[in-house]
Design a protein that fits this description.
The chain is built from 21 helices and four strands.
């Protein structure tokens, strides 16, 4: 994914991955034919590189972002990371923006896997070129996260004075349609389209199939399969031929499953679906992180969500955690502490609680894991 987000010639980047070099840009890839919009991200790169250094170069992107955003949790407190000078120094960007920056830094070699990485999780350490950035000897540019591609293809942008109050309603309609469509096809929702595509749809508000061509993540195949139905969901009054929103969906993630959740668990799950981390939901709701983890475990066990919907699995494979949990054979808080220590802190106790719930769930599936 990080390779897809880089800003230079695709062919040069691919060849470099296999140890080969190309003296000049190919002139044929999308980056050469239509250069992406970039910004000077040197300071941001220095912040996250410094964060990795100060935390011991053993943690993955999720923990580094928590430190940059000052997301307090049991692990950041226990490790003393809240006393570091870098704590909270990245609050000028959102979590999704930091995730994109770190992916691009991994793809360009500014970050490399640390010795704490294994086949199941990825710690990050500063690469040789990353030290040049830290010393201020090399500038860094990153891809701008916008829907500019849609604007170039003629899709109408949202007007500056357009009301935003309807966004949440449309977002929920799109999510419901995605769940139902996924259920009908026997696939996980993210294979219909992911959350980034959802946000792009909300940003562009397409009114035609041509507009949909500019939406991130919608190629011609998905356009042929879902285009008319998506337009009907986004523009219900336009008379587009599409399936009804009222079509019943599968129990997983739909009304029947959600109805089994307690009100508090449903609120926590909604916070996760809106893009907040577990620690952020806990802080916003004035709850302990382990309480929120319990809510998410409840959601998994009753089928209201899947593992990839409640945990950020980017760069991490939970199989080793499942093995350790099964070996310990219990789900008490003390066991999660022991499991966390055995896994070198790559999974927090709250995350292990969620993994244990998924492991014992009768609805456990494997897509995306």
């Amino acid at each position: 994914l990080g390779l897809c987000e880089t800003t230079d010639c695709r062919r040069r980047r691919l060849l470099a991955h296999f140890g080969e070099t190309l003296s000049e840009n190919c002139g044929n890839c999308d980056s050469c034919l239509e250069p992406v919009q970039t910004f000077d991200g040197t300071v941001h790169a220095q912040k996250v590189l410094s964060c990795a250094r100060r935390t011991g170069e053993r943690f993955g992107a999720g923990h580094l972002i928590d430190v940059l955003l000052a997301v307090s949790g049991e692990r950041t407190q226990r490790l003393g990371h809240e006393t570091l000078g870098i704590w909270g120094q990245g609050q000028d960007l959102k979590r999704a923006q930091w995730q994109s920056i770190i992916r691009q830094m991994v793809a360009t070699g500014l970050f490399v896997p640390s010795e704490h990485s294994g086949p199941f999780a990825a710690g990050l350490k500063v690469g040789p070129e990353g030290f040049d950035v830290l010393r201020g000897e090399r500038p860094v540019t990153f891809r701008v996260e916008t829907s500019s591609a849609a604007l170039r293809r003629g899709a109408a942008p949202r007007k500056a004075n357009a009301p935003l109050s309807g966004d949440d309603g449309l977002r929920e309609r799109l999510r419901r349609w995605r769940r139902e469509t996924a259920g009908e096809n026997g696939i996980p929702p993210y294979m219909v389209f992911n959350d980034r595509t959802l946000e792009s749809l909300l940003d562009v508000l397409p009114r035609s199939l041509e507009d949909l061509l500019g939406v991130y993540g919608l190629g011609t195949r998905k356009l042929d399969r879902y285009g008319s139905a998506l337009l009907a969901v986004i523009n219900p009054g336009d008379g587009q031929a599409a399936r009804s929103d009222a079509t019943p969906g599968p129990e997983t993630g739909s009304g029947p499953a959600l109805a089994k959740l307690s009100s508090s668990a449903s609120t926590s799950l909604d916070g996760i679906r809106r893009g907040h981390s577990l620690e952020e939901v806990a802080r916003l709701r004035h709850l302990r992180p382990e309480r929120v983890a319990g809510h998410l475990a409840e959601a998994l066990q009753c089928g209201a969500a899947t593992l990839e919907q409640v945990l950020d699995l980017a760069g991490r494979d939970p199989d080793q955690a499942f093995f350790v949990l099964e070996e310990l054979g219990d789900t008490s808080p003390s066991v999660f502490k022991t499991a966390e220590e055995r896994l070198d802190g790559l999974w927090s106790r709250e995350e292990l609680c969620i993994l244990a719930a998924w492991q014992s769930s009768p609805r456990r599936e494997s897509p995306g894991i």
